[in-house]
Amino acid sequence: MRILILSDIHGNLPSLEYVLKQEKSVDCVISLGDVVNYGPWSNECVDLLESLDNKVLIMGNHEEAFLSGIYPGKNLIVKKFFNECYPLFERKDKITNYIESFSFENSDFIHTINRDYIFPDTEVNISKNTFIGHSHRMFSKMIKDYRLVNVGSVGQNRINIDEINYVIWNTIKDTVELIKKPYSADRLINQMRIKKYPDICTEYILSKRSS
């Protein structure tokens, strides 16, 4: 079985469409959360994932915020994005059904561990092979006898916004392929400008371009 594992789409529909087109032959798609917010297509991204035949949809902190109607953090930029995206969101009924975690083949799938941002040098304990997102940084490492994989971000790579990250797990061979794909964020940025996002939001996305 080939499983596509992705996370942190953040309303970036063109990037999500690109990944699904590239990986048509997978047997299942697992989304680790944060489908919504930031980009201007939160509704459309939820709909596209919902349309897939074989999928597992996990709750992220931004889904939690959209369900509560309040972004609990203090980051001014994230609040600006939330205030732009949340009033236009119409898919609460769908994200309500997202689950907290999923287990399969001695592996756990969850948005993150203890609500922390997990990076390659973060000390963390796991008792199974574990796939996470949240920090938008892709890596794989062994912790004792278990594999910790951060699948990175489809929609908002915070090192290079023009790069998509996701993972293909082959359960038969037990191989985990960390995939990086160049993909221009021009459509995302142009749509944000058309929607008249606050300048601070557009500048934030532009600041994530590598050159």
Structural overview:
The protein is of the alpha/beta class. Helix content is 27%, strand content 25%. It has helices at 13-22, 42-50, 61-68, 76-85, 92-95, 186-194, 199-206; strands spanning 2-6, 28-31, 55-57, 101-104, 107-110, 129-132, 138-143, 146-151, 163-170, 175-182. A five-stranded mixed beta sheet has the order 3-2-1-9-10, with no helix packed on it. A hairpin with a 4-residue loop joins strand 9 and strand 10. The radius of gyration is 16 Å and the shape is globular. The N and C termini lie far apart (38 Å). The mean pLDDT is 97.
Topology at a glance:
Blueprint lengths: L1 E5 L6 H10 L5 E4 L10 H9 L4 E3 L3 H8 L7 H10 L6 H4 L5 E4 L2 E4 L18 E4 L5 E6 L2 E6 L11 E8 L4 E8 L3 H9 L4 H8 L5
Parallel strand pairs: 1-2, 2-3, 5-6, 6-8
Antiparallel strand pairs: 1-9, 4-5, 7-8, 9-10
- Tally of DSSP β-strands: 10
Query: Under the CATH scheme, which architecture would be assigned?
Result: 4-Layer Sandwich
Low-confidence runs of at least 5 consecutive residues: none
% residues in beta strands: 15-25%
CATH topology-level name: Purple Acid Phosphatase, chain A, domain 2
Structure annotation, total helices: 7
CATH class type: Alpha Beta
Q: Rough shape?
A: globular
Strand order of the largest sheet: 3-2-1-9-10
- pLDDT averaged over residues: 97
* Biggest sheet layout: 5 strands, mixed
| Structure class | alpha/beta
Order of helices and strands: EHEHEHHHEEEEEEEHH
Radius of gyration: 16 Å
Q: What's the number of domains?
A: 1
Question: Could you tell me how far the N terminus lies from the C terminus, measured between alpha carbons in angstroms?
Answer: 38 Å
CATH superfamily: Metallo-dependent phosphatases
